[in-house]
């Protein structure tokens, strides 16, 4: 994919599923938490999965969806602590560090922009050591608006002071890319393999990549 890098000043990058393998999150919420919830409540794992999937669904697209303190209270479990029990599954996608180094060498302003809760951010930045690559790390919880809402990008533009016509956003969520498009973010890229344990699924709406090496000038085709 050939991007006009001379026309891009700011790069916004999602975290889970974009820079990091979403398998950690999928396993944690769909397998590990239900197992712990079942044990805590004396019910079967199957019953716990059924109940939790329904409860998760009700909060999807809201700040509660990624609020660890909210889920700790709702489920009666110490969610931040439980995350540390499986943090060996937190992995950086291939070529991410190479891409981030390219952005740094190109003097782009690079911002991590995520719906993730602050406690999740702290855990993952400590584990991956990607933090120094970013000029800013912003959670939707900081702005009080989820990325699915167009107002998030308007608030972000005000906070960071960027020209929306000179911004690249890479995401593994089509809903977030749509809201960014509505807010006037010009360059949008969909990450088609958020989890290493799931098949590649390219977007019918947005230019799609599997690995960030595809965005490096004159390198994606040869490597």
Polypeptide structure, described:
This protein has 223 residues and is of the alpha/beta class. It has nine helices and six strands, in the order βαααααβαβααβαββ. It has a six-stranded parallel sheet with strand order 3-2-1-4-5-6, sandwiched between helices. Strand 4, helix 9 and strand 5 form a beta-alpha-beta unit. The longest helix is centred in the first third of the chain and has 19 residues. The model has no long low-confidence stretch (mean pLDDT 96).
Question: How is the topology of this model organized?
Answer:
Blueprint: E1 10-13, H1 23-41, H2 45-59, H3 68-75, H4 79-85, H5 96-105, E2 109-114, H6 118-128, E3 136-139, H7 140-143, H8 150-160, E4 167-171, H9 174-182, E5 187-191, E6 208-209
Parallel strand pairs: 1-2, 1-4, 2-3, 4-5, 5-6
Helix pairs in contact: 1-2, 8-9
């Amino acid at each position: 994919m050939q991007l006009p890098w001379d026309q891009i000043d700011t790069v916004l990058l999602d975290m889970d599923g974009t820079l990091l393998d979403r398998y950690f999150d999928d396993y944690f919420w769909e397998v590990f938490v239900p197992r712990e919830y079942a044990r805590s409540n004396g019910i079967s794992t199957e019953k716990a999965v059924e109940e939790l999937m329904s409860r998760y669904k009700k909060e999807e697209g809201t700040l509660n969806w990624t609020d660890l303190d909210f889920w700790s209270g709702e489920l009666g479990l110490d969610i931040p602590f439980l995350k540390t029990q499986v943090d060996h599954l937190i992995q950086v996608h291939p070529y991410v560090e190479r891409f981030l180094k390219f952005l740094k060498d190109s003097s782009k302003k690079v911002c991590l922009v995520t719906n993730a809760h602050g406690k999740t951010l702290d855990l993952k930045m400590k584990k991956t050591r990607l933090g120094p690559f970013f000029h800013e790390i912003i959670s939707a919880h900081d702005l009080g608006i989820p990325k699915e809402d167009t107002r998030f990008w308007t608030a972000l533009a005000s906070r960071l002071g960027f020209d929306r016509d000179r911004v690249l956003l890479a995401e593994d969520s089509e809903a977030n890319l749509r809201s960014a498009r509505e807010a006037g973010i010009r360059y949008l890229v969909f990450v088609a393999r958020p989890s290493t344990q799931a098949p590649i699924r390219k977007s019918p709406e947005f230019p799609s990549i599997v690995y960030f090496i595809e965005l490096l000038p004159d390198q994606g085709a040869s490597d």
